[in-house]
Amino acid sequence: MSKKIGKHIAIYGKGGIGKSTTTSNISAALAESGYRVIQIGCDPKSDSTTILRGGNDLPTVLDTLREQSKVRIEDISAVGFGGVLCIEAGGPVPGVGCAGRGINAAVELLQELKIFEEFKPDFVLYDVLGDVVCGGFAVPIRDGLADRAFVVTSSDFMAIFAANNLFKAVNKYALSGGARLGGVIANSILAAYAPALIDDFAAKTGTQVIGYVPRSLVVAQSELYGKTVIESVPQSEQAQVYRKLAKYIDENEDSVIPKPLNSPELKKWAREWGDRIFEVETGVVHEMASI
Amino acid sequence: MSLLRAKAPRSREKRLDTLGAWLGPVSAASTEFAGDEIAQRIRTFAQSSNDDLLYALRILAGIRDSVTIIHGPRGCAAAGLYHIAAGCNTRWFVTNLDERDTIMGADRKLRKSVVALYRRYHPAVVFIVGNPVIAINNDDIQSVVEELHEELELPIVPVYVTGFSSQNAVSGYDTALHSLLKYLSGNSATALKNERINLLSVAEHPQDRKDAQNLLKQLGIGLNVIPDDSTIDQFRLAVSARASIPLSPDAPEYLGAILDKKYGVPLINVLRPVGVEGTGRWLKSIATFLGNEEAAEELHEIKSAEIALQLGDFSLKGIKTYISLSSANAFSVLDLLEELGGEVAGLTITHLDRLHVGHLNELALRNPSLQIHVSDGQAFEEISILRKLAPDLYLGDATHLGQVARLGIPVVSLESLAIVGYSGVVRLARRIKTALANSSYGLSLAKVNSPYQDAWFRRSHNWHIKQEVK
Ligand SMILES: Nc1ncnc2c1ncn2[C@@H]1O[C@H](COP(=O)(O)OP(=O)(O)O)[C@@H](O)[C@H]1O
Ligand code: SF4
Ligand SMILES: [Mg+2]
Predict the structure, then answer these.
(1) SS3 B349
(2) Does A92 touch chain B (CB under 8 A)?
(3) Structural domain of residue A283, as residue ranges?
(4) pLDDT in tens, A121-147
(5) What is the SS3 assignment for B381?
(6) Active-site amino acid positions of A
(7) Domain containing B290 — which CATH number?
(8) What's the CA-to-centroid distance between B27 and ligand 1, angstroms?
(9) A233 and A211 in one domain?
């Protein structure tokens, strides 16, 4: 592969945790500050870039992938807010085929089309479906495609579990040219204990939280308008949070090889937090629990 | 009821403790199979290996009025070549899946293929055969089967071969037979029985089948031969037969067992009709079942006398033979060689399992130190064994005869030689006679350098065979 054009960043996390919302707002914020950005949705749901392009139709890469027909960049991309180039890898309908192989094939096609050489992005953001369940979903962090991976999580155990799985995959591939971990994005922060819980998980696994995104009505409202928060309420506090995230990703190149917890460790860690939360909710006061 | 409910049968390892790798004296094999638990063996290196897809296709190729679709990428068509190699002329096709099909699912392509082939050939049945790609992808064959079965009013039979569910290719026979039974035989355990007898023939030489058929005809037995060289109507009739008799206790075992257990068609348990005694035993087993023992006795007498006359003073006395064949075949050829006065130096068989326990026990009494080598396609092991044993003659299928000949050992190929029945004895005797007489060819071949290094010959013969650690 020739020299990489732009910084390539993969964003993972459990389904529904807010990857696409967060990624799109980061893309929008980066574009707003003058960068050329490509956002690639790697999820058969194909809705990663919806709020960047006002909900307009966009054929997916896999829809257009046929041996004979010549695919052009214009066929599989749309220009969204702030000039962000939006791409959806696409995938099979639920229940058939293999989504993981789809991501693989879509990424290969994008390379064939020389999309990065043509567009010359400063940033490429991959928004990747949920848990790393198989080799296919690990494609963006394997083979040196992305330099850094971030994980979006809430304080829910299942989201933490998915994050830990991503750490396992990063850990496996980082030494052979795969992506390293940039950090954790804490999303949908509502409960008082959530930041401390996520901080603790990050510390235990040798990484750090790079931003806390509050759960906010503005997000839901903007989504209904088919827009990012950056576009629809640029003055809001929430927009500021996303700008801060974008700034961190832009200015900070720190990355680590995380130390995922094994499953007894993870269970034990979760149980301890269960006890702590219970104590907080029932008013037992410990010195430590000043959260 | 539940016997045929699954998509595919349990593997031979699970049903019969089948081993694909083993080496040791027959006494040890007999002892091991006397126990409840058989430790699986694995090969840490294999030179080549058969695939269950090949075995499944071999069964399907027998059904004349069928069309077979190998639902996979074009490379899977290589397996279809086996149809041709086996001398079958049924029609087969490959759906030629491309990358997109493997991602998005290929049911549309499959549907199109079935409809197109139906319109073109109007077959009595369409087989859809799986392979590793389809199995890993979980491609949706079932909905195509169900939809088109109604729409075209045509039996469509999915054969769920995976290529990895079993380590023993012979499981492929079972997979195909399971599907045939499941989709063609219906549920009628109470089917009205008629007088016919099923002759179960799987992957047999046409002449072998014909000879066996002729013998049974001479006893006045009406036959329905399945699945080799048959039609789907014949296959459907199998459930209403009076009994089944196999040409081999091994390959068609699953068919015989299900016809017996699910459809109440008794299976006559008997070894291959090979050798004078073996053929007599085979004929008498079915005749006894039908209460017609004298006729069989009489026929056997006449035929044995004829054969004795034709063999004259032919004898294998002093000749040590190494046998390398599919398992049931090997055991029956062993009996035949002994009948001809010869001795057996050792055996290489494709697999070993509970179906062979009878042979093992009997051999363990007669010749406990006889070495059994279990291998399907490991010529390198066999060559090393043969160098050590230095037999006078080698009987095998065609796969590595050339290499054996280079050791200077006279070889006889059983690939295209019919050995079933009384006349089979004479055919084999003639072939052996020729091979032993023309040893100069082998001797000059032996001057060619060995492809193996001496270091390999110094290794123990079970160097790569290990007990599986769970
Ligand atoms: N910080 C937040 N505050 C409020 N709603 C949010 C927030 N983050 C995400 N959501 C909402 O959660 C839902 C799922 O988010 P989405 O980004 O599509 O998740 P994913 O891409 O991880 O599947 C969306 O309806 C989105 O608007
Ligand atoms: S788990 Fe992965 S490899 Fe398996 S079908 Fe799903 S996406 Fe494909
Ligand atoms: Mg999403």
Answers:
(1) strand
(2) yes
(3) 261-291
(4) 999 999 998 777 777 888 889 877 899
(5) helix
(6) 14, 19, 45, 131
(7) 3.40.50.1980
(8) 69
(9) yes
